[in-house]
Every structure is written in C-alpha cells, then in structure tokens.
Amino acid sequence: MPLFGSLKIGVHKTFGPFLLLCLLNISQCWGQAPSTGDLIKVHEASQPEINSLTNPEEGMLIYNEDTKQLNFFEGSNWVAPSNTSKTLVLNRASNGNNNLIVNSTNQYYDLPVNASHEINNTGGIFQTIGNGRIRVVEAGAYFMSAAFSVRDMPSGDTKYIIGVFINGTLRGYLTRGFASLPSSDWWGTSGTIIYPLSANDEVRFRYVVNNNGNPLDAVFINIGITQL
After folding, report:
1. Which of 123, 125, 175, 191 could staple 138 via S-S, CB 3.0–4.6 A?
2. What is the pLDDT of residue 193?
3. Which residues contact 126 (CB under 8 A, 6 or more apart)?
4. From which domain of life does this come (predicted)?
5. Rounded to an integer, what distance in angstroms lies between the CA atom of residue 117 and that of residue 138?
6. Domain 87-227 classified CATH 2.60.120.40?
7. Please, are residues 164 and 193 in contact by the beta-carbon 8 Å criterion?
8. Which residues of the chain have pLDDT under 70?
C-alpha cells in the first residue's frame, strides 16, 4: 500500500506542472501575431476567369481579384459570403442653374450621376462605369430604384419616363406618365423595379422629359441598387 500511495502522489505532482506548461504554450501560440508563413494562400483570378472555370465543386474557394473578396462555389454560382449589405447608392444634389436634365421629344438620356456621386458602395459587386451606368459582377435578383426632381417643370402636360436598360435593352419602366402643372413649379418622380441579373450585366438608368429641347435645372438625382 505505501508503494501504490507514493506512485499516485508522484503522478499527480508530475502531471500538474506538465498540464500547466501545455496550456501556457497554447496561450502563447494563439496570442502571437501570425507570420506570412503561417497563412494559407488561396488561388486568385479575375471575374471572367472565375466565370470560365469548368466543373467546379461545391465548397471550392477562390479569391476574386476584381471584387477583392473571397468567393465560394455554392453549387450553381460563385458567391461572396458577407455580413454587409450589397448596395450601391448614387446621389447628386443641386439648387443652382445647372441645366442637367437635357431633353428632346421622346429621347432617352442617361441619368447624370456617376462614380463621383457614390455615397454608398458595399459588397464589392458594383462598378459605376458612367452616367447612370452600373455593372454588377454577381448573379442574383436585384432591387433597383431611381428618382430625379427639377425646380422649373413647365406648365401643362409634360411626358416623363424613367426606364431601366439591361445590356442595352429596355427591360422595364420605373415610372412614366405626364406631369400636369398649372404653372412652372418644383416637381419630381421616382420608381422601383426588381429584376434578375447575370454576372457582368450592365444596368443603365435613363429618362425622358418632353420639354421641347429646353433643359431643366435638377434638384436631386438618385440611383439605388441592392442585391436581394
């Protein structure tokens, strides 16, 4: 009995410091900043290169050089996991004599907002490529809105339209109608649409105002697009 008792005490005395030493080593390992040699390198490619990959398997990872995000294949599409919303907002405000809303009868013009008017662009999937022109680099269903207002809409019945074009083809009206005013006044319109888009589709927001070629002074111009 004394022999077994001594052995038990010896094991306890030896195991205790050993366990403490292991825990300290683990704590030090996780507490230190990693070096580049500790990191895993994921293959990188541009969006067109990713789209051209053949027979990808669900769960594969790749770094998208265009969106600066990690993408994974979820079975049918390459998607970027993110807790942030994927939203683009363009906004331009002015009360001056700007003649921004140019027009001629039944002629479409691009809404005059561009990358310099971005006030929000999250998710890494939107590229503003010109006035009213946006490219999306990820397939999905999108909620789109647009609006503009002027301070000198003429009296009478004035036709107006905001249309959304996908890859150059008109796909829907966000709003259209006639502004009927007894005298020249401040006026505005807005509208929304939900539409499915493919990767690298170009969305173009365009307007019509029939004012006999006389430009109008814009107060607000806004475009918003969100992936649902």
Report:
1. 125
2. 97
3. 86, 88, 134, 135, 136, 137, 225
4. Bacteria
5. 22
6. yes
7. yes
8. 1-32, 37, 82-84
So what's the pLDDT on residue 4? Answer: 44
Question: In the chain, what are the domain boundaries?
Answer: 36-79, 87-227
pLDDT at 20: 52
Q: Which residues in 211-228 are b (16+ Cβ under 10 Å) and which e? A: beeebbbbbbbbbbbbbe
Kindly give, in sequence order, each residue whose CB lies less than 8 Å from that of residue 96, ignoring residues fewer than 6 positions away.
Answer: 217
